[in-house]
Specification:
CATH superfamily of the largest domain in chain A: NADH-ubiquinone/plastoquinone oxidoreductase chain 6, subunit NuoJ
Largest interface: A-B, 92 and 74 residues
Number of helices of chain A: 7
CATH architecture of one domain in chain B: Orthogonal Bundle
Distance between the termini of chain B: 53 Å
Radius of gyration of chain A: 21 Å
Structural class of chain B: mainly alpha
CATH class of one domain in chain B: Mainly Alpha
Distance between the termini of chain A: 58 Å
Oligomer: heterodimer
CATH architecture of the largest domain in chain A: Up-down Bundle
CATH topology of the largest domain in chain A: Four Helix Bundle (Hemerythrin (Met), subunit A)
Order of helices and strands of chain B: HHH
Radius of gyration of chain B: 17 Å
Number of strands of chain A: 0
CATH topology of one domain in chain B: Helix Hairpins
Number of helices of chain B: 3
Number of domains of chain A: 2
Chain lengths: 169, 100
């Protein structure tokens, strides 16, 4: 039953990820990426990580992608980008080697995953992946990384302000 | 019940697509999006192993990955905006000031 939901979601997310790479307009890439994030939220729900699925929708598909859309609209890339979808046409050898590299990477990863022999997982206990369960672990075992993450976000906020405000030359 | 391997295969394929995008695309914003794909692929395998071992540590790690992704995107897009101010393009091939 889980497979019945997993296969379409996985295929759709792979298709949308390819759509991000091979789309000619940046706004199309961004829309494909939003679709992929939502599909991955579905994958998280299948793994009964409900809290992370909600965070995926809120943070990735909401906040981060709105930021992407905002910057794309702000820079008005339709007119600025003279070469819409160009790979390195002046270096065919390099493109072919890149393609082989990525194919080899994918093949090796899939092969390792197929060869490894995982047994059936442990039975999932009640309340797995809920906000309460994740929050308990987050605020007991990982409270120091949590605080460091808040400092990281503060630094990123100040850095973004400074970088986008001043004129660098 | 889907086996762990299916999730790992999905994660590997998505990661490879992200690598392909980073290596092939010249548009700086699309390169950032491909980095997001790679981070999401890592999140999938973290959560899959987490469910397999029936503990919550992996979910906390992927929470941290989301924090880092948010920070990275905000700073990166600010850098893209300030690059665009100096030279009105975001084609990465045109920014070779620090190239050897």
């Amino acid at each position: 039953m889980e497979l019945f939901f997993f296969i379409p979601i996985a295929l759709l997310s792979v298709l949308l990820a390819l759509g991000v790479v091979f789309n000619s307009s940046p706004i199309g890439s961004a829309v494909s990426l939003i679709g992929m994030m939502l599909c991955l939220a579905g994958v998280f729900v299948l793994q009964s990580a409900h809290f992370l699925a909600i965070l995926q929708v809120l943070i990735y598909a909401g906040a981060i992608m709105v930021l992407f859309m905002f910057v794309i609209m702000l820079l008005n890339l339709k007119t600025a980008e003279d070469s819409v979808w160009k790979s390195r046409e002046h270096n065919t050898l390099l493109s072919v080697l890149t393609g082989f590299l990525v194919l080899g990477l994918a093949y090796k990863m899939v092969e390792i995953a197929m060869d490894s022999n995982f047994g059936p997982g442990m039975p999932v206990k009640d309340g797995f992946g809920t906000t309460e369960a994740v929050g308990t672990v987050l605020f007991t075992d990982y409270v120091l990384p949590f605080e460091v993450a808040s400092i990281l976000l503060l630094v990123a906020m100040i850095g973004a302000l400074v970088l986008a405000k001043t004129k660098i030359d | 019940m889907v086996e762990l391997e299916y999730y790992l295969i999905l994660s590997g394929i998505l990661f490879s697509i992200g690598v392909l995008g980073v290596l092939v695309r010249r548009n700086a914003i699309v390169v950032f999006m491909c980095v997001e794909i790679m981070l999401n692929a890592v999140n999938i395998s973290l959560i899959a192993f987490d469910r397999y071992n029936n503990q919550h540590d992996g979910q906390v790690f992927s929470f941290m990955v989301m924090c880092v992704a948010a920070a990275e995107v905000s700073v990166g897009l600010a850098i893209v905006i300030s690059m665009y101010r100096n030279k009105p393009t975001i084609n990465l091939d045109e920014f070779n000031l620090m190239k050897w």
